[in-house]
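I have been asked to look over a protein record a colleague put together. Alongside the sequence sits a line of tokens, each denoting a local backbone shape. Please read both lines and tell me whether the tokens look consistent with the sequence. I do not need a full report, just your reasoning and any doubts. I have pasted the whole thing underneath without changing anything.
>
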Amino acid sequence: MIPRRVIARSLQPSKLIPQFSQCLRQHRSVSTESSPGSSNPAAQNGPLIVDFEEQVKLAASEPSRPSIIPQTQMRTQTPGRPLTKLEEYQRLKASKHASDQIGGILEDHYKPHELITNPPSPRDITLELLLASGAHLGHATALWNPGNQRFIFGIRQGIHLISLDVIAAHLRRAAKVVHGVSKNGGIIIFVGTRDGQERAVVEAAKRAKGYHVTERWVPGTITNKDQLLGDQKLRVLDNLDQEIPLTEEQKLSLKRKLAGKQRDPDRFQVEDTVQLPFGYGAIRPDLVVCLNPLENKTMLQECAQYRIPTIGIIDTDVDPTCVTYPIPANDDSLRCVQLIVGILGRAGQEGMLARYEEETDRAEQIKREQKRLEEAERILEEATTTAQIHKDAEQAASESRQRELERESLISNK
């Protein structure tokens, strides 16, 4: 409820009160009284009184001023009638239109989902990005592993700080390894078994077209692979990760081999793509990326036994010799883990695209070479045909000339 009269008192004398009083007096909305201490000689001591009823009447009598609110959105309201839903929406829309240009614009602020949906590239690694993700924070000094001495920058409040330059260098090296393995068509496994790491691990594996483990690592997956994974089907892929299809002749020969001599080959179903038999055995990975080495020591031991290279996030309390390519960073920060696995997944994707580009260029080069050979064969065939035609024409001309000579000799003898 709007009060009818408002009394404003000035605690200290001000030089602006006479100016405001003169301005308001022109609208006949202020009495001649002003606050105490005023320098206006014509004003008396007393409160400054504003009459809102007269001000509303004067505002109604004045000509209308241009408004920033669109006229199509302004509606008149009947006194005593509540606003309808449409009128409330129109008023809200008008106020929003009037206040759109007010306020600031947020730039370069943190968006948590972008580390998973759109991770940075390895060439976009910066110290500011690693610092913002908390990658430099280690554990307490009482928990440190002496093997991480070369990674530690200093101590603050009893916590080891990891050097950002070392983190960036090791992360770039690991990204190059992932890029090379993916470019050569290797199998990459991303392992992250802690809470909150599942989505980042799955997205990185999809981006690099690898495999992921987000639950408990089954012991013997690598060392006893034939017993655990021997019954799985293996499909044969080309360099573009496409399944190689079987021709009808290959399908028929495979059916005959499965049927033997005493059975009908049409009774057996054969897949449309090339597959390896069940007794071939499981395939070991070419690279394993581990986000929490402390909880996956069994997996790292299996990889070391078969000389499978590994990449791991090494905190200050982890032995850096348990992995092949350590990345010294904070493995307890979910944002740091998402950043690192996102960069490695992006590196795998770039390596895969580079392989696709090379295979496409090689296929185009083979096509161009084949086309050039076909063109050379066509030109050689045309030249051979033309030479044969000339030879036949010369032979026919010599034969006709010989016949003419024989005829002339017969005529001369007669």
Q: What stands out?
A: The chain is about 45% helix and 10% strand. Residues 334-413 form the longest helix (80 residues).
